[in-house]
Amino acid sequence: MKIFISADIEGVAGVATIQQLKTNGEYQRFRQLMTNEVNAAVRGAFKAGADEVVVADGHGNMSNILIESLDKRARLVSGNNRVMAQLEGIDESFDGIIFIGHHGREGDSHAVISHTLAGICVNEMRINGKVVGETEMNAMVAGDYEVPSLFISGDDIYVNEVKETLPNVESVVTKFARNRIAAELIHPDIVKQEIEEKVESAIRRIKDFQPLVLDGPVTFEIDFKGPQQAQMTTTIPSVKMLTPTQIAFTCKDMVTAYKQMWACVIIAIACTNGITGSVNA
Ligand SMILES: [Zn+2]
pTM surpassing 0.90? Predict the structure, then answer.
């Protein structure tokens, strides 16, 4: 049995503010806590009978997890410029996906450090009219590969958000959000124990989970923070402007739509302060 783990850091137990995650701040502490939580999920997976676990590091530059501290049985996808972003390495050979340390969506959420892929440019994303965060869209991509979403962990608001889309997913609440930059924390050792147990129990009943499959074409709408970001995404032929800050496009399936969404976000990031501001030319 093969298990994929998509790991982020904002939802990890102990993290309460974005300042803690800056590389000149307390980042080293929190990347260790992130690695520890991933290890708890890896232990649970192997206890439940997994014989292969691949972890995709999915925060910031996507190289946060400390390989020397990672459970030796897991393999790690680390590093940047990934076409499949937080899901780099997933395919139909996996039996289930687990989300560790993920967070609430930008827009209507008070979850801790809520955002959708890039806080610098994205206000809200909708798929076929429904507001989604990162976990929901990742679950839909996994669904295209017939991989069911088994487990999520993050703050209480995040868990409730995701359960609107994945009502049966197993979950662990890692902290209680007070607002976007404050949380009531739970000791990481307690959270790790719970993650290990619940990942194990979720995988033991893996037959209860169905892949989240979108039938037919997939329409993405993205609300950007500024028109200078939205407008340049129309360099992709099928992208249409809805308003000066909103765009939409339709693709034949979720994997194709996810890649195009990611292209739009990358363009928007590059255009935030003008292209020449981010390119040495
Ligand atoms: Zn992140």
Answer: yes
